[in-house]
Amino acid sequence: MSAARRSVVLLGASLLAIAASAVVASVPRAEDEFPHARHRGLFPLCTGCHVGIEEGAAADTWYPEAASCVTCHDGVREDSVQWSGPTRVASNLSFEHAVHAGSLVAASDSATCASCHRDPAGDFRMSVARATPESCLSCHAHAANEHLADGRDCASCHVPLAAASGLSVERVEAIESPESHERADFLRTHAPAADLELASCATCHARESCERCHFNGGSLSAVSALAPDERVAALVVGAAPEYPRPVSHDDPSWQWVHGAVATDAPATCANCHTRPSCETCHAGTPPAAVAGLPTLSAGDARGIEVSMRVSLVHPAGFDTEHGAVAATSESTCTSCHVESSCASCHAGAASPGFHIGNFLQSHGPEAYGNEVDCASCHNAEVFCRSCHSEVGLAAIGRAGTAFHDARPLWLLGHGAAARQGLESCVTCHSQSYCMRCHAAVGSWRINPHGPDFDPVRAQDSPNKATCVLCHRTGVPPR
Amino acid sequence: MMRAARGPAFLGLIALVAATVQPVMGQSIRVTGSTRSHFVNMRPLMPDSVLATETRGGGTLRTTTDGQVVRCLAGDRYCRFSRSVNAVSTLPMTQDLRISSWGYGQGVRVYAHLRGRGVVAEEQTIWPRADDAFDALVAYVELDRSLFRVRAGRQWKVSGLGYHNFDGASLLLRPATGLSVEAYGGWSLTRGLNEPRTSDALSAIEDFAPNDRGFILGVQTTARAVQGNSLSLLYQREIRTDRAALLSEQVALDGVFRRGPASFDGSLEIDLATREVNEARLSGRTSVGSDVAVGAFVRHYRPFFELWTIWGAFDPVGFLEAGTSASWRDPERPRSVDLQIARREYGETHVTDIFGPARSTGWRVTASGSMSPAEAWTLQGYYGAEIGFGAAKSQGRLYAQRQFDDATWLGVSATAFQRIFEFRVAKGTVYGLGLDGGLDLGARTALSGSLAVYRHDAGTETPEVDWNQVRASIQFDWTIGAEPGTGGRR
Predict the structure, then answer these.
(1) B110: in domain
(2) What percent of chain A has pLDDT over 70?
(3) Rounded to a whole number, what is the distance in Å from the CA of A336 to chain B's nearest CA?
């Protein structure tokens, strides 16, 4: 390379380095900005003042000493000045003037300082301005023309946020969000992107950014690869997590199929759900997928807060119509219900709450209609009859008292009612009470058997002792 | 008068011992308790009479001068009726303890559900079973492994025949995923009573109660496919321990089938001893969109009586019932509406009633809804009408609940129901106002209670029947001991 050519390259690199220094500095120049316009006829080269910038000199040497100004600003020819140059403000850019200068030299690029620092509105030789991101994009390939458009090469120009330690909390908070993050499905789809382009995510995010929602961050490679950052931690404290509802969860049968999905891929569930969130419903023996989720300490993010809406899990009326499900799906029931859940209703009248308020006074129609199997919880003889006896409803004295007072001569016309509601009769009347009239011996011998009664089958019955109660001497002959 | 609540005190002692005994060799124990007491106040009925000459009208049904309906039989100087006597009150207490202990080896668990009862009131017998100081509802040792489960002791059996317990052993085999076979046997207990059939509780009110215990033997096979489809077949037989008689012999077939948003379930109960179908039920339900569900069911029901009673010989008839339902659920917010209507028709009784047939059909309609008008507020409404054989009523309820925080809630309710008897003249409307609330006293203790006052508007027809009532309850739930699988903390 000839000396002349070397000089041109060095000059170009120097100019480029000087221009790019403004990008790195991001300097507010209201007070310290050098009035390039007033000096435009004096300095032929940028590197005349910005000495060493293209060689990687420290940022505090990029600007000339105030003593250099004394040559002209001696108080005689020109007024004295006190100028110290702008203070470099920290940024998250990874730009290095020296690196660019070296690269450009190697590539024999013709870029100069002005390539990045020329003020497009200026009309004089030294009209300079800060470099913009678009300046970088003019050379660096990008998926779009705008700085925050979709793309995955943030790391080309930026260092990870955690490495940009000079940024204040306020500046971190002020980082603009890319357009992609505003899309409705971004939260549902960002995971693959995070894996592929973790470096881009790291430009604006630290581990705490993810752990605001991903309480399982420690088990996610993309999250654990991010460095922690106190500034981000301060920003997310108290911020509510956001959990998108997966499309799969909109399936009406999701409640029935989610167990298999959770078993196959529990880690997927763990992105949003903690063990407590599952235990909202799965209060019984936890399925393996639930047991595998972390149990959290106080202060941890809890994931999706599942509010137990039984109405969404069980259809209306399930409390009285769950017999078939309970009989066939014990393992499913025990995923949510402990054994005592059943006993709280079925083990007798110890747990008020199953029936609507004041059911005691109003349960007659339900009992007659056998809407639910009363015997599933109550013993008709001991529970119902003893209570009815205590409150004066059960028949304990002479027949023909006035309880069934709506039908005249009830005793003579109760046959149809008895056949239709025999279970209700039993709640007040004992066998011996009815046998006063219906026994074959020692009574009015009124035959209680209907046309469907099969005496042959009764004779073959292995329980002939019951026949003896009325027939005394045994089963009557065929 | 106060009576010492020996049952609750005894169980309290058990809880204290369980809480203070230090587990050894890695064993753990957890005790969950529910202490409940409810105040019941009511006016019982008693038979009364009035001279026939002091009644108005003629025929069998007449009224007294103050409007009381009385029944007068020809030839009887007195007309008879039932009237309410002085109010009585009782305060039954129940103490439940559920004790679970583990750490004796993989899959080994000891579980017990004990119940103590007592009465602190002037009237001790008004509440059923309140004088039964102690019950062991469940007490068994279990070994549960992936291929089988063995239980020995007093245990519940949940099946298509219902929910009852017995003293014995059960073996559940899981030979393949979704397939299980269970065999069980032992001494049977009376369903809904948790006592042997020879219990004094039964013999005290039934002259012909069994004088011997019963053996129970059952086998159940359950197959469960993906997505909740399942089928269960059960055979169960009960005999007297002296083998002198059969107490029951039944088969139950239950199935659940789900396909996408639709689900169907069916139940069949057959009494093999009488060759009667006691229950045959088929229901279906499907979602229409994300927020509406519709369903329908058809059901045949005929009461089942154990063979030690004479009731089966009375040829009870069953009914056929069909109904439909519709539900709306807001998938985003807690708002819902449910409607249901059903009609049933009884079988032919083959009885000629000289005073006209009894009603052989019945209707019921229910509508309910809930919503949350503001954060922490819940409103619920219910209306139901039942016009059926034997009795009828119309009932409504409004309920509002305010959740103050995760641990505290308060609710207020207003109810009204009108009873319209078919077999009794007594009519009336009862209005009620209630208050209930709950308070979580930490992660493992909770207190709840309710108070309701009911006032009876009898009109002029039955002034002596008084359904005025005060009900109150208080419940304290607590847990002590370890949590399995969480290292002792939640």
Answers:
(1) yes
(2) 76
(3) 14
